[in-house]
Every structure is written in C-alpha cells, then in structure tokens.
Design a protein that fits this description.
CATH topology of the largest domain: YojJ-like (1
Strand order of the largest sheet: 10-9-8-11-12-13-14
Strand content: 15-25%
Largest sheet: 7 strands, mixed
Structural class: alpha+beta
Number of domains: 3
Helix content: 25-40%
CATH architecture of the largest domain: 3-Layer(aba) Sandwich
Number of helices: 15
Length: 501
C-alpha cells in the first residue's frame, strides 16, 4: 500500500522534487516511521497571502477526516508563493486496534498555520511529526537555491539520519524528565548523527572476511564513573580496528556521554558490578544486552548488527530500526498494549515471542484462536496428544507392563515432552522456539498451546508469500501475528491486515 501521496496535478509542469526536495524526503520518512499511516501532501498557491489575518481563501481542513492524526499548513521554504498542506491519516483498522486518533483532535481556527495533532499519540510520534517539519525547514532555508543537483541529493540522503537523531535526543531528555535546553539537545543529536555515520563505515568493513557488529551506549556519567578525558567518539575511534571487536553490541558496548566523551567499556559483568535494580517491569531482556544496558544506565543504545541493520533503544525499549536503507518507527509499545487489552497476559506472551523471533532473524506465525481450527492435522495438535497420554483423569490406552503405548503420530512424542501446555508457564523463550519451527503456532484465548509447526492450507494471492497467505487464512478464525524473516511484524484479524511494525 502506498504510504505517501503527493497531489501532482497542482504542480504541473513543475516536478515535486524541484519544488520541495527536502520536504518530500521528510514526509517519506514520516510515512515510514508511523505504521498504518498514509501521508497526504498537497501544494497550493493562494490567491491572497495567508499571512494576513482574515484571509479565508486557503485553509487546511482538520475536522471530519476519519483517522486524521496530524495536520499542518506551512509555507514551502524558499518558495513564498507555494504552501504545503500535510495530513497524516491512519487506516481505520490500525486506528481502531491501537485506539489512536479516535476523538481528541486539537482544533485550530481558520487561518492558523500551527501543526495540530491528536492528544493520545505516543511521544515518539508527536516528536517525529514536529521534527520532520522543523529539520526539513531548517535544512531547506540553509540550502543555496543554486546549489548543484548532486549536492541537493546528498543532503536528501543525509536528512533521515539527522531527523532520527533529533527525535531520539528529544526522547532521551523527556525520559529523564528535565529540560535539556537546546544546547544539550543539539550536542546529543550531533553525537547520534556522527554515530550513524561511523556505523555506515563499520557496516562496509570486514575483519578476516567476517561481517562486523558494533554497539554504543549513550548515557550520563555514573556517580562513580566519569569520562576518562581522552579522545572523543567517534572521531578518535574511527581508525582503530579493535573498536567494533571490543564493543560488538552483543555482549559489550562502548559507553560515551551525550557529548561523545568515552567513559567505559560495558559488559554483562560490568553491569552486575554497578548494582541497583532494573528500572522497568517490561521484559526488555528479550531484546538482548543492548536493551538491558540502556535500561540499567538510563540511556540510549545504538547497535549495528551483522546484517547491516541498526537498532536504537531508549531506557530498555526499542525506538527505531534501520533496515535496507529505511528507518522504521517501532510502535511496539502501543501494539503490545492493544494486544494486552484484548487478550490480557496471553496477548503479552504472544507478542513478546514475536519480538524475539524478529530480533533473532526468524520468521513465524502465531495465532490466538477460540478453538483449534478445522482442517488441522491431528499430528500437529499438541492438546490432543497431551490429554490422551498425560492429563490426569483422561482415558488412556491400556498397555501391558513395561510396554510403551503405540503413539498414533511420531510428532506426539515431542508434544508430550514439552513441559506443559500453558504458555504462561512455558514462557516467552519456549514459545518463540516453537514458533520458529516451519508452520503455525496456535494458542487458545485461555493460553493453552493447541498446536505448533501446523500446516495451514492456503492459496497466495498475487505477489503474496506463503507465510502471509497462511497468516491471512488462519486469521479468519482468530487473531494472527506474522513475523517475516527480515524482521517486520504484521497483525491480522478476520482476514484483514491491521498493521505492520
């Protein structure tokens, strides 16, 4: 589904990129960052100047638009005669599921050009919408209108990283619940942007033909640890071969201050030595060492993985992901909350297992159904096997002493070896392990493991893959979470796609 829509009819014969190159890039990033959202971008030339009060010939409608999250009406930098009308609209299915943008749109008077948005949006989305506008505006105003096209395209490619850096800086200081002032905020944004640039270099490097990973923790100095006063990151570390080797992001991180001052090398044992307790109750450990470290030290972790993707964590929670050149905003918090509202702890466990699959690079299909779907082969039915041979009080085959019963299907052996069929007792790790097996994992709304590795008869439509087709088919009888091997998580309900994160 196309996520950025530009009204090109109003621009003929001028190409959109010629009018607003950086603005369009910022809006494309915004459409990538917010799952389930479409960005509508319209350019208009008013008959009168909207700067004067009382002018009503050009307005931006902000009411009576279903799913409207955000509306903004601004002059195009460097083009006084043109105005940019931006609307972010969430699809009805996503809006209903996440309970975002329902009925709290901030109204503004006709002619007022300040951005307006829903009150109940997560902080990262509010920051993203405001900063995409602000950074693109600042960059465009500083851009020489006569600059060569190559220079403009280079700025366009750098813009997303700078926007993410500023959003992350705002989130960092909001997490700490004190005002940073623009000075500290901008220094942190510079450090994050410089880190992104260095990670690009590391991703293109090899050591003995092996791909590299790297991790950085950005946090204020600890009461017992201060910056060592030697060098700065990443400038002093760029040419050191051992930098990614000693801070690989998997079990070690290079701790720097928001200003880029090196403080320490963080390992698991190092964290234990700091003492204190983990601050959040969320199961951040599923995301690995980088998430836990950012939680314990109240900071940001930026990790380059061997597959070239980049993940950002703030206070233990995933914030952003860059994969194959595109940034995605991670609405995993609101999605998890929505699943909890609907399925309670069963929804938490299923989504956490999906997150673990995504983080480890495995695909899978997990479903929450009221009962075992029709057409499922008996060999995949975990509950049937366990009730036949393990449950107390159930009728069991009568066998002679020292003679093992004949099992109808070899797969039932493992069904009975699994330590329980209640996923609340099994836990996230075991559920993710089962879900990684080819086929679907199905649990009941009561939390019983009904099947795993189950083959779902389906017929792909168009360019749809087999896993997506199976997930869509299975969702006719329940709620389905599909994890792609390359990371994205898609939710289905009643045969329709709700959202992809």
């Amino acid at each position: 589904m196309q996520s950025l829509h530009i009204d090109v009819d109003a621009l003929k014969p001028m190409p959109p990129e010629e009018l607003d190159l950086l603005g369009i890039q910022a809006m494309q990033l915004l459409s990538d960052l917010i799952p389930g959202v479409q960005v509508f971008l319209r350019y208009v030339q008013p008959q009168e100047d909207p700067d004067f009060p009382g002018v009503t010939s050009v307005t931006s409608t902000t009411v009576n638009v279903p799913g409207l999250l955000y509306s903004c009406f601004q002059r195009v930098p460097g083009r006084r005669e043109w105005w940019r009308d931006v609307k972010l609209v969430m699809t009805p299915a996503s809006s209903e599921f996440l309970a975002l943008g329902s009925d709290d749109l901030l109204r503004h008077e006709q002619g007022n050009k300040r951005p307006t948005s829903r009150r109940n949006l997560p902080r990262e989305l509010k920051y993203a919408m405001a900063i995409c506008q602000d950074v693109s505006l600042a960059w465009t105003e500083s851009l020489d209108p006569h600059a060569p096209r190559d220079a403009k395209l280079a700025l366009r490619s750098e813009l997303p990283a700078w926007i993410i850096a500023h959003i992350t800086a705002d989130l960092y200081y909001s997490f700490l619940t004190y005002s940073s002032g623009r000075g500290k905020h901008d220094l942190l944004a510079l450090t994050i942007a410089a880190t992104f640039d260095y990670l690009e270099r590391v991703a293109a490097s090899r050591v003995e033909h092996e791909l590299l990973s790297h991790g950085v923790l950005i946090a204020r100095s600890h009461r017992s640890l201060k910056p060592i006063g030697l060098g700065s990151y990443p400038a002093s570390f760029r040419d050191l071969k051992r930098t990614p080797l000693l801070s690989n992001g998997v079990d070690s991180l290079l701790w720097i201050s928001p200003e880029g001052e090196p403080i320490a090398l963080v390992t698991r044992d190092f964290l234990k030595g700091l003492g204190g307790r983990r601050r959040r109750s969320e199961p951040v450990a599923n995301w690995g060492f980088a998430a836990v470290a950012s939680d314990r030290l109240r900071g940001l972790s930026i990790v380059l993985r061997e597959d070239g993707s980049v993940m950002l964590f703030g206070m233990g929670q995933p914030l952003f992901l860059r994969r194959q050149g595109r940034w995605r905003g991670l609405l995993w918090g609101p999605v998890r909350e929505a699943m909890h509202r609907r399925f309670d702890v069963v929804g938490d466990l299923v989504f956490d297992a999906a997150l673990k699959l995504s983080a480890s690079g495995h695909g899978g299909v997990l479903a929450i159904a009221q009962s075992v779907p029709d057409g499922l082969h008996d060999k995949d039915k975990t509950l049937v096997a366990r009730r036949a041979y393990l449950d107390r009080g159930a009728a069991r085959p009568r066998v002679k002493a020292q003679q093992a019963p004949r099992v109808p299907y070899p797969e039932w052996l493992f069904h009975c070896l699994i330590p329980g069929h209640d996923i609340r007792a099994l836990g996230v790790d075991a559920l993710a392990m089962l879900a990684a097996i080819d086929g679907a994992t199905i649990v009941t709304e009561k939390g019983e493991l009904a099947a795993y590795g189950a083959v779902i008869p389906s017929r792909p439509a168009g360019s749809e893959g087999a896993r997506s087709a199976a997930a869509r088919q299975l969702s006719e009888e329940g709620f389905v979470v599909k994890v792609s091997a390359d990371g994205p998580i898609t939710l289905f309900d009643h045969g329709k796609e709700l959202i992809e994160v």
